[in-house]
Each structure stands twice: as structure tokens, then as C-alpha cells.
Amino acid sequence: MSLELLGRIQQELSITGSAIYETVLALAERANRKVQVLRLHSQASSLLSQIEEVHGELGRQIVTLCARRPPYSHEPPLRSDQLESVLGQAGDRVQHLKRTLLNVDSQIRELKLETIHHELLTLQQDLSLRAAAMERLPLTRGSPMIGRTLAEVALPSSVRLITVLRGPFLVPPDQTLVLRADDILVMIGLQEDLAQVISEFTHARSTTLV
Known about the structure:
Radius of gyration: 29 Å
Strand content: 5-15%
Order of helices and strands: HHEEEEHE
Number of helices: 3
């Protein structure tokens, strides 16, 4: 066996090993994201339960204070300072829990967007081998497509609109959806057809690959 052949075999094994390693890393990252999302959902559920407990405890405290009033008394069931103290403590606790819940919800959304971005990037790499591509097309102010519904937008037969990114939200591409400035259209199709769409949607090419 020649040294040249041995060198080729070694190179092929090295490339295969690198591909396997990258695949394992990608799977580990995806699994790690899913675990983090599950933990955050569990934390969010716990926070909601704590908020309900605070409301329940507030009700029990008010009932207890009202029960201390002597029977047939004409005095108010609760003094204003007592009521303010009870409500204030409960309100502070609920506000703290709600702030924590909003932070958890933000983390969940970020992880989901990271997962979507990674999957779209993988798909983009696969499409590039097939003379196809995926484009993120931002609708800048002045685009002729702003204000139109998707039903009014004509696309080449090879181009498909996957989703619309509107702020942090993924909006399904319903035919009645009205396009707005700063929307980002995620499209897939043949590269030359996508180039045609880009020229029609914008005055100048300003898209970025996913």
C-alpha cells in the first residue's frame, strides 16, 4: 500500500471523525437547550403556584382579622392601617414573583429563538448544496410590500414563505396577514428566484443569510 493511499485514508478518517464530533456537539447543544427550557417551564409553574398561595393567604388573613371583631360591634371589621399592612405585604410579594416570572419567560423565548436560528442555519447549509437558499428579508420603510396582505403578494413557484418574524414573535404566514415595516420574511427557494423576490421587495439588496 503506497504512502499516498495511506495519506488519503488518514485524511478521510480525519474528516469523518470531525463530522461525527460536530454532529455530537450539535445534538448535545439541542438536548441542553431542551433541558433548560423544561427547567424554566417548571420554574414558571412554581412561580404561578406561589402567586396563587399569596392570594389564598391574603384571603385567610383578612378572614382571621374580621373574625376578631366582637359580635354585634358597630366598629369596622378592619382598621385601615391593618388592611393597608396586609395588602401591602401581599402586593410586594406578588410583584416580586411576577418580575421573576417575566424574567423566566424572557429566558424561555431566547432559548427557543436560539433553537430556531440553529435549525434554520443547518437548513441553509443543506440548501446551499442544492442551488437553493434561505433568506431573511427585512421589510424596511419604503418597501412597496408594506400594507399588503400575503394574498396580494405574488411569489415565484419555487419560493415559499416559511414564517414572518415580528419583533420576538413568529407569525404564521396566513393569507390575511398584513405586512408591516420591520417585519422579517423568512423564505426558501431557488437562489435566482429569491434574487428576483429581493429586487421586488426592496429598493436595494439588504438581506442577510440566516
